[in-house]
Amino acid sequence: MPHITISGDIGSGKSSVAQGLSRAFGYRLASVGQLQRTMAATSGLTTLEANRLAEEVPQLDDLIDEEIVELGRGSTQTIFDSRMAWHLVPSAFKVHLIVDPAVAASRIYRHRVSRTESYGSPADAEAAAEDRFRSERKRFAARFGVDISQLRNYDLVIDTSDVSLDAVATEIRAAFSGCSNGSPSLRVSQRQVSNLPGPLSWSSPAGGTTNHPVIGYLRPKLYLLRPGTKAVDAQPNGLMPAVLGAEGEELAECLFPGSAFAAS
Questions:
Q1: Dist. CA 56–CA 152, nearest whole Å
Q2: Domain match, 143 and 187 both
């Protein structure tokens, strides 16, 4: 069986999910986030400051990346809690978690109090999380030529906004073990999916003949591009199976043609 990589938005629960899967599967856990926080605390830096420093001193990332690659080459089955292990261990089963920013901010504000992470309000936590995401996205784009926000990078994407982490872990276990072979690669909360703005309709053939809804992703928003050809209810855990139709600049240009947002 391959390794598993767990990446995701800050506050999506990726570390907790990775820990739970490690216990359930008996896999070794490699937590890059914990290593980064330890390095930041040792240097007297906040997590965001450590990320910004890494933009200027790539050697800091080299140490972590080399460790990931080495573990990925090994035969000991490993769950990687990491933003970039999906790229560094290409044979792994790649899971990515997304979350509504307000939900993420509430989680971060409640649970992350340490020498490297402490916030005065949920709004402060949300702003810091976005700053950190932008820093990491810029750093990894320059370093590897990839965009960590693109959902097409991953085998399975789960929206954790409205479900328990146990439910998320269950979905991953089912997909990884083959119980979900042929199923769509997205699991989204129906509450988080918006209709297209204005009188637009989506005519792209993306998604093929799937019976499941086709979803567009313009971080952090999920849009319904095309309903399923038959009624599809959310599963008991609250997650709706779906497929990805379009994302990023492709979707922005459709929704907001000629805008600065579409061109950014």
A1: 28
A2: no
